[in-house]
Automatic annotation (TrEMBL):
Residues 287-298 have a biased composition (Gly residues). Residues 70-301, 368-388 are annotated as: Disordered. It is a single-pass membrane protein. This is Cell envelope integrity protein TolA. Residues 113-264 have a biased composition (Basic and acidic residues).
């Protein structure tokens, strides 16, 4: 307030600082409400603000008259449309409206009140602008904070999702390794069981084969033993039979020889002045030099030894190779029907295996062939060589 106005006796008393603070507080609280209402329903037209002020004085003073409101001139009447016919007459030019009356000159108090109101309005606008700016700053801060929090949350969510993905991959990898280990262990177990089963089957088969082989070998041995025992028994029985027959034949031959000897003795005793003795004959025959002897009996033919060799040799079984051509000589006694009663080795060839083969062949032959005269010598020596 200027010094001139401060010295004006008609000016109202200066309000205290406390009242000014309350006024400013009310203005600060009312300003947002007014701004809100103003934004919702803005005025159609801004009218000229009327300023009112109260003046205080120690003495009673008549108030100045209220300024008359300025009335705007009336709008001119609309011009009627001209008629088409006849042509209208030219309209008279309207007179300009009278100028409005000059408003009364405001008093010093009105000017001061108007200035105070303008100052208060500017202060209010300034406060509103600062409040709006502060709110915008706070809103921007809140928005920035929300965006930061949103970005941080998105970052955390992304990191968490990445960690979850990595953990899932690691878990899948671990699960896969564990599954591979389980599959490998299961496969090894399966192969081990199959191997054990196969080895067990092979062992059982080997045991069965061995048992069957042992059984077959045992049965074969028992069979061979039984066959050998049977063959030995048959051979023994045959030998006993041959010995008995040979003994009987020898006894018969001895008896016959004795009878013939007695007859020869009687015949010789009846011959007067004669002399004689027992007759004997020896003759070699056959390619092997077989020699036959007989007491007072007639000799065999020249080819009899070859006939005996032809029958006996097929029965000689001797697989070994004999060095040289050794000769084994045997003495054979036979019954009158040709049955061999005994075989005796009289001269060894020096090879016992060959000697035994010749003796076995004669036993296997069993009978001697008859001579050309239909008889069989009772005793006959044969010689056999491997190469003959």
């Amino acid at each position: 307030m200027s010094p001139r106005l401060a010295q004006d006796p008609f000016a109202p008393p200066r309000p205290s600082k406390r009242l000014r603070s309350w006024v400013l507080a009310l203005l600060a609280h009312a300003t947002p409400l007014v701004a809100l209402v103003w934004n919702i329903t803005p005025p159609v037209a801004v009218e000229q603000a009327a300023v009112e002020a109260e003046l205080w004085s120690d003495t009673f003073v008549q108030a100045a008259p209220r300024a008359a409101a300025v009335v705007p001139p009336p709008a001119p009447a609309p011009t009627p449309a001209p008629a088409p016919e006849p042509e209208p007459e030219p309209e008279p030019v309207p007179l300009p409206p009278p100028p409005p009356p000059a408003p009364p000159k405001p008093t010093q108090q009105e000017l001061q009140s108007q200035r105070d109101a303008e100052i208060a309005l500017q202060e209010r606008k300034k406060q509103e602008a600062e409040l709006k700016k502060q709110r915008e700053l706070e809103a921007q801060k809140a928005k920035d904070k929300a965006e930061r929090e949103k970005a941080e949350k998105a970052k955390r969510d992304k990191e968490k999702a990445e960690e979850a993905r990595k953990e899932k991959l690691e878990q899948e990898k671990r699960d896969k390794l564990e599954q591979q280990k389980r599959d490998k262990a299961e496969q090894e177990k399966k192969e081990r069981l199959e191997k054990e089963k196969r080895e067990k089957a092979e062992k059982e088969k080997a045991a069965k084969d061995k048992a069957a082989k042992d059984k077959a070998a045992k049965e074969k041995a028992e069979k061979e033993k039984a066959e050998k025992a049977k063959a030995d028994a048959e051979k023994k029985a045959a030998d006993d039979k041959r010995r008995k027959e040979q003994a009987a034949q020898e006894a018969k031959a001895a008896k016959e020889l004795e009878r013939m000897r007695q007859e020869n003795l009687k015949a010789m005793a009846g011959l007067a002045g004669g002399s004689g003795g027992t007759g004997s004959a020896e003759k070699s025959s056959g390619p092997n030099g077989g020699k036959g002897t007989g007491g007072g009996t007639a000799g065999h033919s020249a080819g009899y030894g070859a006939r005996v060799a032809a029958k006996v040799k097929p029965n000689i079984v001797y697989p070994d190779v004999v060095s040289g051509n050794p000769r084994a000589e045997v003495r054979v006694r036979a019954a009158p029907d040709g049955t061999i009663t005994s075989v005796q080795l009289v001269k060894s060839s020096g090879n016992k295996a060959w000697d035994d083969a010749v003796v076995r062949a004669l036993h296997k032959t069993e009978t001697l062939p008859k001579d050309t005269n239909g008889t069989v010598p009772s005793e006959f020596n044969f010689g056999f060589r491997p190469q003959d």
